[in-house]
Design brief:
GO terms for molecular function: metallopeptidase activity. This protein is of the alpha/beta class. The chain has four helices and seven strands.
């Protein structure tokens, strides 16, 4: 069984800053229920479960931040994977994803995949972001990466 699950999205009833999220999430939900998703996946990173009962509220700023990172990485013709951290809150089975930032990697030819997370830079940046957003009490809730369909190397 895969550890990754497809999220279900809740209405942002308690999150007025997430006003545009229901339309985006509803469109995602409709696409995720197509017969192609119901078929058994050969990719071990994709779950075939219908729901994990986790409610996720995604702030549009996160999408903009990730899109900006991908664009800069591509236009600068940078090498290496695209990896970033997600900040938000978890209250029971509801997770809000409110901010994102890119993670710096360092080349490490001795490891499989050739890159490692720069732990000192990550720790410093995470601490900065948590300090800046201390009123919202944000914490590390996940990460994102762009990978080929075959998964990580």
């Amino acid at each position: 069984a895969s550890l990754l699950r497809e999220p279900t999205f809740s209405s942002p009833r308690n999150h007025p800053q997430h006003a545009s999220v229901p339309l985006i999430c509803e469109n995602w939900r409709r696409r995720s229920q197509t017969p192609t998703m119901a078929a058994k996946s050969s990719n071990p990173l994709i779950s075939n479960q219908k729901s994990s009962q986790v409610q996720a509220v995604l702030h549009p700023l996160v999408l903009l931040t990730i899109s900006d990172y991908i664009t800069r990485h591509t236009l600068r013709q940078q090498k290496g994977p695209i990896v970033g951290a997600l900040l938000g809150q978890q209250n029971g089975r509801e997770i809000t994803i409110e901010h994102a930032f890119e993670c710096h990697l360092r080349e490490a030819p001795e490891v499989e995949g050739g890159y490692l997370l720069d732990a000192s830079k990550f720790g410093a940046r995470l601490e900065q972001m948590i300090t800046v957003h201390k009123e919202r009490q944000l914490d590390f809730v996940g990460w994102y990466t762009l990978l080929p369909l075959t998964g990580p190397t």
